[in-house]
Amino acid sequence: MFTQFLILLLFCTPFITTSGHSFVRRLDRKMLGLDQKQEKLSHFRFYWHDVVSGPNPSSMQVVSPTGLNSSTAFGLVNMIENPLTLEPQLNSKLVGKAQGFYASTSKTEVTLLMAMNFAITEGKYNGSTITILGRNPVFNKEREMPVIGGSGLFRFARGYAKLRTHWFSPTTKDAIVEYNVFVFHY
Ligand SMILES: *[C@@H]1O[C@H](CO)[C@@H](O)[C@H](O)[C@H]1NC(C)=O
Ligand SMILES: *[C@@H]1O[C@H](CO)[C@@H](O)[C@H](O)[C@H]1NC(C)=O
């Protein structure tokens, strides 16, 4: 029994090592077709609509603030599927959606942690995504957040987004934010 097992093990060992995937290996760029491609730098501009009011909000509170400071809403979490449009008007051309969430992360100022995927639907970028993770002190005139990656045409993406509030309603809390996204990708 034991010898049978040993024989089996001996026969299988080369098989396991050759066909089994090793944990990591060095890859030639050619194998992903990256040797042919120049890394590009692109600038995307669009408007992000945080619609919290009305019958069809795109942004909804899913966690209530802690109550530690009502003016910063520390602890609040909103889940979003915010439209991204070419112009500031919500009914202008839709180029994608920002899917993710933002959370209020300060007890002393209004600052959000934002985690979003820009699911682009425009032109050849349809189906590709850009991922943002950053800090957004919303009342600053200009904010910056990192592009930490992407998928599809945005594989290996890195860069940053500059944002400015285009319009904000203190009564409804709806906001339109201009995004300028600078991204290196293949
Ligand atoms: C609450 O937030 C405001 C800013 O919105 C800040 O000025 C104030 O110091 C904060 N209060 C406390 C107790 O942290
Ligand atoms: C994007 O791709 C999806 C799925 O392939 C397709 O249904 C949709 O019509 C495309 N959108 C645009 C704007 O091309």
Automatic annotation (TrEMBL):
| InterPro entries associated with the record | Allene_oxi_cyc_Dirigent, Dirigent
Compartmental location: Secreted, Extracellular space, Apoplast
Broad class of the protein's primary localization: secreted
Read off the Gene3D superfamilies from this record: Allene oxide cyclase-like
Cite the Pfam families for this sequence: Dirigent
- Kindly indicate whether the keyword Thylakoid belongs to this entry: no
Gene Ontology cellular component list: apoplast
Q: Which GO terms describe its biological process?
A: phenylpropanoid biosynthetic process
Subunit-structure text: Homodimer.
Give the protein family: Belongs to the plant dirigent protein family.
User: What is the recorded name of this protein?
Assistant: Dirigent protein
